[in-house]
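How it folds
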Amino acid sequence: MFHPHFVATHVRYTTFALSVAAAVVSLPWMALRPGAWPLVIFLLACALIAVGVYDMQQTRHAILRNYPILGHMRFFLEFIRPEIRQYFIEGDIEKGEPFTRAQRTVVYQRAKGVPDVRPFGTKLDVGAKGYEWINHSMHPTTIDSHDFRIWIGGRPDTPRVGVSPCTKPYNASVFNISAMSFGALSANAILALNLGAKMGDFAHDTGEGGISRYHREHGGDLIWEIGSGYFGCRNPDGSFSAERFAEQATNAQVKMVEIKLSQGAKPGHGGILPGAKVTAEIAAARGVPEGEDCVSPSAHSAFSTPVEMMHFIARLRELSGGKPVGFKLCIGHIWEWFGIVKAMLETDITPDYIVVDGAEGGTGAAPIEFADHMGAPVQEGLHLVHNTLIGVGLRERIKIGAAGKVITSFDLARMFALGADWCNSGRGFMMALGCIQAQVCHTGFCPTGITTQDPVREKALVVSDKAPRVAQYHANTLHALKELLQAAGLMHPDQLSTHHIVRRIDSARIRLLSALMPTVERRAILDDLQHQHNVYRLYWPLADAHNFAPHVPTPEELQYNPDILRPTVGGRPASAVQIAESLTRRRAPHPAPVSAIVPEQAKSSPTATAGSQVPADWTSS
């Protein structure tokens, strides 16, 4: 057995030396016995020698300088490491990245319409901390159809309430395709998703990249997402265009309009599509010049305060002909969300729906710090939004959607129990298309033709084969949800609550979610704030309908509500006043920048246009 030091010292140049030896030996071999093999060996040895010489001369990789030729094996193994782990090492229920093999398998099975039943019992550790289940009933129900649906934007047979209400409510499935743009997905992927949505009578969210011709070809229901770049409804300077919006929003295929405030996988982060990737088709869908950088600012320019946002929603409803308008967000600063709710109360303008995107949501590309540590997970965000709307008496007027690692019927049931009216899934439907979780979405080299604009790669995705799989995944997942509801003695997902879900705390204790995540009483935030959870008691006074920044309570507010000053138990935190003062304290002077290094990965930072572009007449809408 060789000592590791001997190997490290003497094996470094072995491959290079063997290549030289092979070239030397092949010369007399060719002279003595002319033929193909000596020539092939000589040419191969010369090629390896050239690689070795280059390796020893280059300065970028120390491994190649120390281990010429042989060092390339390290980079090759590193390159195929995810596939080796996924195919040969990863267990069925081992924590996947981000989905386990068992989760992916159930999507593939349901998409293909093959049996998804499992023999020999669960592989999960039912005694593990965090394990959850649904309590069943001794009197199961019988449900006629798996096609559970809800009205968004009010019911056709009920009076409209509020300012500028929706007049064209949408009859929606409780399970729909989450926002994924053309450009992030290939043309064939968009075609297959929309045809599948058409076949299954559910909705397809366009993502913020605009409505492409591939979204329209099969006529599936669309939820048109509008981001800060206003793609498909923008002026040449990037500002919002009411005329272009109305032109597209009044199309019968567009069923709802969704304003994207933030995305779970990278909330608060803008984006830029390099000009080289802005093809003629992408430029047409987004309304931007072909071949030029396409910027998505980190914030909207059409509104700058919560109240202006409400007037913007009312204006979009009018321009769309009365269709449901809502917004999507990942919960961040709580006072900003509360400020939006206060703006609803002040203006009597409410969105028809809110989609809560969790920090565990997917994206084609996000900085690692954003993907791992920015934004609230869907459980906390959904619970906060649901409770807040109940606490101010607006829950009946607003439907709530939820997104974030929704794959199975239990994922759906859990979201409904936490307060969602429907769920969206992006990666689930991508896997129905054949996604293998290669995680190269940002490179353009997707092996299944889903997240690429390479015309050769995307041809591997056959629309006529994949669209039925999208429809089957949707139908089979809802069929599984129907069976869960029947076993629990229920008739519709809207009957699920936190009383139905049980969580294991440790080996000896379990709790209902209703005990861990209680629901507030109707209008309790408005009528009995001092007795609510600290989240509401401390942060509600900080919220301002006319500013997203935290609001420092005035002396009059302190006199009216002295509870704002009361410290919490243990002094954490002292009071809403102290929180506001801490959040709004001035920044200390800092030295000026001195580094001249420009980060190679950085692009021009996309920023929103200063101020608000909301016309003055919108405030009276």
The CA atoms of residues 93 and 100 lie 6 Å apart. The first strand starts at residue 132 and ends at 134. Residues 463-487 form the longest helix (25 residues). Residues 4-77 form one domain.
